[in-house]
Specification:
The chain is an alpha+beta fold. The chain is built from four helices and five strands.
Length: about 180
C-alpha cells in the first residue's frame, strides 16, 4: 500500500481524533514538495547547469524548471536573467512517493543521521530540509559523479501551525531528533 493510500485510510482518521477536528478537510495533509537546487558554477560553465538539471530529473522523476536571476549583482558577475538554479514542484502520487523515499531510503543513507530537527518549521506548518550532497539519493551512482551538488527540499502542508504539522510528520513516520534529557 502506498503512503498516499495509508494516509487516506488510516492516518487521516487518527489525526482527526488526535487534533479534535470535526471536519476531515481541516486535518493537516501534505500539499506539495518543492525541490530546489542553486547551481554554483552555472554562470562560468553551462555544463554545470545541464548536469544539475539531469540530477534533479533523476532524483524527482520530473523535469525541472530553470530559475533565473531576478537582479544583477556585479560583485558576483551576475546579470539579470542568468540561469542560476533549478526547481521541481511535486504534487499527488509523485509527492507521496518522494516523501516515502526520503523517510525510508535517503535518511538512513545520511552519515551520522540522528533525526531531523524539530526547529526547521517556518511558523506556518511547512518544513525545509537541506542536503549538502545529492549522492544520498538512490538514483545517483556515486561512481559517475564528478561534482557534488547541494539541494533543498521544502515540504508544504495544509497545517495552520507548526504543532499540527509536527503531529502530521510524526504520524507519517518522519524520524525526529531525540531531545537530550
Amino acid at each position: 500500500m502506498s503512503m498516499q493510500e495509508t494516509y487516506k485510510t488510516e492516518i487521516q482518521g487518527a489525526l482527526q481524533k488526535k487534533l479534535g477536528k470535526k471536519n476531515p478537510i481541516a486535518v493537516p495533509a501534505l500539499s506539495k514538495i518543492v525541490v530546489n537546487m542553486g547551481v554554483k558554477g552555472a554562470i562560468s560553465d553551462k555544463k554545470n547547469m545541464q548536469n544539475a538539471l539531469v540530477i534533479l530529473t533523476q532524483i524527482t522523476g520530473q523535469k525541472p524548471k530553470v530559475t533565473k536571476a531576478k537582479q544583477a549583482i556585479a560583485s558576483f558577475k551576475l546579470r539579470q536573467g542568468d540561469q542560476i538554479g533549478a526547481v521541481v514542484t511535486l504534487r499527488g502520487k509523485r509527492m507521496y512517493d518522494f516523501f516515502e523515499k526520503l523517510i525510508s531510503i535517503v535518511f538512513p543513507r545520511i552519515r551520522d543521521f540522528r533525526g531531523v530537527k524539530k526547529t526547521a518549521f517556518d511558523g506556518r506548518g511547512n518544513y525545509t530540509l537541506g542536503f549538502s550532497e545529492h549522492i544520498v539519493f538512490p538514483e545517483i551512482d556515486p561512481g559517475k559523479v564528478d561534482k557534488i551538488y547541494s539541494l533543498e527540499v521544502c515540504i508544504v502542508t495544509t497545517a495552520k501551525s507548526d504543532e499540527d504539522a509536527l503531529v502530521l510528520f510524526e504520524a507519517l513516520g518522519v524520524p525526529f531528533e531525540k531531545e537530550n534529557t
